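Researcher: Structure for this, please.
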Amino acid sequence: MTRWHLTTRMLAVVSLAAATMIGMALAEGHALKPQVTVMGQEKRETTPDCMRQGEPMTYLIDFQDPDEAGRWRAINDAVMGGVSRGGLRVEGGIGVFSGETSLENNGGFASVRRDPEAFDLSEHPGLELYVRGHGRRYQLRLYTDQLPQGAAYRASFQPRTGQWQRVVFTWSEFEPVFRGRLLEDVPAVDPARIEQLGLMIVDRQAGPFRLEVAWLATMKDL
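Model: Predicted structure, token format:
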């Protein structure tokens, strides 16, 4: 066998071995080039307008109503000597509860309340709030004639940062409080006797806050 034939055979053997190794590597899921991770497309954000499509809902509060902004009043910790500030305004059909909380002078809360209006919600299992937050914790508050003045039924929530989110509250999630303390021997909230609604931030943190609210609606049947 000539040298040329030996060289040709050796090259063929080397090529076959290399192909075998490549095949085994690929079979085991190992690439011979840098691994590239392909990211999926970012999920489209669900906007308030998207959430309005579909089944009809009963909106108790809808900030696309041009008169809604004038129905809210700020009640901050200045009533107790604090210096927190907060209020509610409407931007492009969205209610914005914003301001800055301070722990000075034993303060630390900001709140807004809607003008009193009787709501008989006894035929519904709870409420739905459509909001977008920025990492802080809030309270939805209900006021009824079951409690003394200044007391409320509260339900806490902390929406995901920067994402519109539907928050659902059943009536059993509301607990009676007065100045941050739970009230004992008090009946559960009666949805037929709700007289006023409010929002509060009292998470024992100092700094700016911003909660965007599209609407508050009655929960669909469970």
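Researcher: Any notable elements?
Model: Helices lie at 3-27, 48-51. The chain has a mean pLDDT of 81.
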